[in-house]
Amino acid sequence: MNPTSHASVDTAGELPQLAADYRAVRELSRTLCAPLCTEDYCIQTMADVSPPKWHLAHTSWFFEQFVLLPYQPGYRVFHPRYDYLFNSYYVTHGTPYPRPQRGLLSRPTVDEIYRYRDHVDAAMAALLAQVPAAHEDDVFGRTRLGLNHEQQHQELLLTDIKHIFAHNPLRPAYAEPGADVAAAARPVQWLQFAGGIAEIGYAGSDFAYDNETPRHRVYLNDFALASRPVSNGEYVAFMADGGYRRPEFWLSDGWAAVKGNAWQAPLYWEQQDGSWWHMTLAGMQPVDEAAPVCHVSLYEAAAYAAWAGARLPTEAEWERCAQDVAIEGNLLESGHLRPVASDTAASPRQLFGDVWEWTASAYGPYPGFRPLAGSLGEYNGKFMSSQMILRGGSCVTSRSHIRASYRNFFYPGDRWQFSGIRLAADR
Ligand SMILES: [Fe+2]
Known about the structure:
Largest sheet: 4 strands, mixed
Bound molecules: fe (ii) ion
Low-confidence stretches: 1-7
Strand order of the largest sheet: 10-9-8-11
Number of helices: 9
Shape: globular
């Protein structure tokens, strides 16, 4: 659903559901932070990482600025300077506080930020109980957008906590390791797809981001897609074959990144007594050879594919396959908080969950794309340069947040996301 051109809301049926969804999504942010100590909330380990308390405040700011101030008569902001501190990147709205300095804010305290959340939640509950008739569609659409925005930040929260804890030599655990998943990696099958005209993009009546629209035709050549993501064991074989020392596999920018950053393994990997371990949300754990490889950049994904004699799928190929697949898998609700091997017989496996899958497609506008009106048009459209598309969600993505048409995007050198590899090939 497009927040600014939404079909008329059935207020009797949809608004109570929206209010319930609001409470559930907001509560999950609090639940995800429950294992944190006050000191954990304040750390920023790099510019891409935000302190947990900033995520909690920024997601509240979004509702305050884009729903409550425009549509709740008499709404009073919690603090007049929060519009500066917690604006992420909406430059047509105001000047944001510098992103790399989010970790320098000891105030507002964590307690104050939780009171800010309570203040916003009380006002949102009042608004959703009695929406001004003239603004039903806008309130509905923007609240839905705000909830999806908060789900994105819930994933970032876990991704960033992992980076924060990995930076600490004590290697703290955010959660218990959980049950072992003893599945072996099933052999890869190559699923064959006939080429022709396909349709991708979102055309339903539920929520989707503007960047998933409009649905449009694409031409696909015959192609094949691997039945599962690349495993840690397969990636270790690439490393053992000199993967990080052989420039013939690498894109030029990728080889520069290998040299400049001294990459020798995925992010968070360490060798201990001859075997590989890696930082997880349950602290340091041995690398499970059967689980999907994770925390690799697009450069590493492309180099692995070249070594394996294959390539990465385009986003249209990926979506063509995912359109027929149920949205289930190792998503946030599974509680693993790490990619795990799958022993299901389904094929393809693990399209949804476990790891975001890098594609060979650059992030750009679909034919006929129109960003949302006003400052919300900055949500997606202005990032359509120099980034690459990832598909399918990860082990820290909420199930209700992901769909076949969902387009995630990061810079090709980024590794702190739960990003992995699925191979494709020409037929
Ligand atoms: Fe945001």
